[in-house]
Design a protein that fits this description.
Blueprint lengths: L12 E2 L10 H15 L5 H8 L3 H8 L6 H23 L7 H16 L8 H16 L2 H27 L5 H11 L2 H12 L5 H4 L2 H21 L1 H7 L6 H9 L3 H26 L5 H21 L3 H4 L15 E2 L26
Helix pairs in contact: 1-3, 1-4, 2-4, 3-4, 3-15, 4-6, 4-9, 5-6, 5-7, 7-8, 7-9, 9-15, 11-14, 11-15, 13-14
């Protein structure tokens, strides 16, 4: 982009949701770091250091602060560590990040490892994933495991889409980017972990309600746009700014980076406002397990913000991750955009505002 983050003013974050973290987060983190070292998925101490520096235990302990079973929460946390590691080494900026054919071949192997543990895959990340999946199957019913497997496939399909764009030097328009980002950010499997970590078993008739599907997608989108914000500093420094909400807006609307930052913030706040509005319609009639899931969506949006504004994954600029002071995030009292109705130029998400959702 040719711009330093010091030249851009990032607005405070509007997020009027409750903050919480699981009380056993440090014990979960210790067990997870031991697993990372024993899993064989990291090829070097540096790679391991970056995986550990994702602070995934802190991340997911904020999604599920009331989880009653530490082993369930640990298994969910292991997948988050695994997911960040796989994203960094195999997806985001690794050797396959611009080679769609080779990535698709690997993605097929990884997805099959997610689906079955009968054959040992060649890839070290695929082998580690099998161990995580064995843990899930040891305590979770088939419905919840299957939901996670399908969500995992959706994520890999989005990454493949993104890598295809990168290989072709193609910048998507806003509507396509938002549809892509719903998949490529990994939000579907991350929120599918809510049932696995908490033991909630949401009935199909509730989970598949259009309003619940919309709430899930909105939570994913808000978190994804927030992650674009938090990774901006690192991407500017490293020159890795191919596809994010800012480059899309700059290319599609001929905006400066500052203008794109402001527009993206407005878009994000409009989606969060609609999430809050629809949540308050759905929650009063939700069953007990769906209520746990909906609360997890709320905790996830807030927790992702609190984690993202302080995690070395986004803030470290050197060859090895640096720890940063635990600073309080800057919060906005009001949303930056109060306009009603769907986001302009984004028909693929306009259905979130349908009047008959509920």
């Amino acid at each position: 982009m040719g711009t330093r983050l010091s030249e851009v003013e990032l607005p405070p974050v509007f997020c009027p949701l409750e903050s919480a973290v699981h009380p056993h987060v440090r014990q979960i983190e210790k067990r997870a770091v031991e697993w990372i070292g024993a899993s064989g998925m990291c090829a070097s101490e540096r790679e391991k250091a970056w995986v550990v520096a994702t602070h995934s235990a802190d991340f997911y302990a904020r999604f599920t602060p009331a989880a009653e079973d530490d082993d369930r929460l640990l298994a969910a946390t292991l997948w988050v560590y695994w997911g960040f590691g796989f994203d960094d080494v195999r997806c985001d900026s690794g050797p396959l990040s611009g080679r769609p054919a080779q990535f698709n071949a690997l993605a097929g192997q990884v997805q099959r490892a997610c689906e079955t543990g009968l054959a040992e895959p060649a890839d070290r990340y695929a082998r580690a994933l099998q161990d995580v999946m064995r843990r899930f199957r040891s305590f979770a019913p088939p419905t919840q495991v299957t939901r996670f497997v399908h969500a995992h496939r959706a994520w890999l399909s989005g990454v493949a889409w993104q890598i295809g764009n990168q290989a072709a030097g193609r910048m998507p328009a806003l509507d396509e980017f938002l549809a892509l980002r719903l998949l490529s950010a990994g939000g579907h499997p991350t929120f599918a972990l809510l049932e696995l970590a908490t033991g909630a078993e949401v009935p199909d008739r509730e989970m598949n309600r259009p309003a619940v599907l919309a709430l899930t997608e909105m939570a994913i989108m808000v978190a994804s746009l927030d992650n674009d914000r938090y990774s901006l500093h690192k991407e500017l420094i490293r020159g890795h700014t191919d596809q994010n909400i800012y480059t899309v807006l700059m290319a599609g609307r001929s905006l400066s980076l500052q203008q794109a930052v402001d527009e993206a913030n407005k878009l994000r706040d409009r989606i969060l406002r609609r999430f809050l509005e629809l949540h308050d319609v759905v929650r009063p009639t939700a069953g007990a397990d769906l209520s746990v899931y909906l609360q997890g969506l709320r905790h996830g949006i807030r927790g992702n913000n609190e984690w993202g504004q302080r995690v070395p994954r986004y803030l470290s600029l050197g060859h090895w991750p640096d720890e940063w002071e635990d600073l309080s995030p800057a919060w906005a009292e009001e949303p930056s955009d109060l306009r009603p109705g769907p986001v302009e130029g984004a028909p693929s998400i306009a259905w979130w505002w349908d009047a008959d959702l509920g």
